[in-house]
Amino acid sequence: MTMPPLSASAFSILRTPVLVLGLASMLVLAGCGSSGGTRRVSYETEEFDSTTTHTRTYAATEAQTCEAARRALLSQGYMISAANADLVTGRKSFQPASEVHVEVEFRVVCAREGGKAGKRSTVAFATALQDRYGIKKVNNSASVGVGAFGSLSLPFAGSDDAMVKVASETLTDELFYDRFFALLDRFLEGQGGEEPDVPSVAPEAPRPAAPLNPAAPATTFPVKPVPNPG
User: For the whole prediction, is pTM greater than 0.85?
Assistant: First the structure.
């Protein structure tokens, strides 16, 4: 039995539900892909509610605190790149795996803070930045002359290994900073804490000059008369 051909109006009526169904399927797939593909970045969890992870307060001057921080980093094998009265930075390398290289840059900032009854104190801010490097293989190539055709670039079988930075992150482990601040405190105690009080010494008064001895009176002796001849 032969079916009569569909008219244009009937074809458009049948096509509309198909298009709607296809559009709905595309939206569902797009929604699933977007929900599963997005990742929450780490800084979205920043609440700025803790002030003890990266900071400690010491009853010392800025120079004493940063000097203790410098010695603490040196004792752990850090290479000091900068050190002054209010800033210390150091860097240390690690090799957790054969093809992974990690560098940690430690920075300590010493800021003066007013205390009670005029007592001086210093706030130490410590931050450690971890850079991770991976090995990337780079293929070598060379040009070979081929007569009238010029030169051709042919790859060699060998390759060179290059270290490429693959990640960078600020360390936020509280125990990591607790151990550093405890070590800083030990070196600060070795310095004696507060600056020693230097007693003020009054300038010595000039001593009076000794009086000069008066000149002794001249002594006269009698002269015997000489007889006049004649």
Answer: no
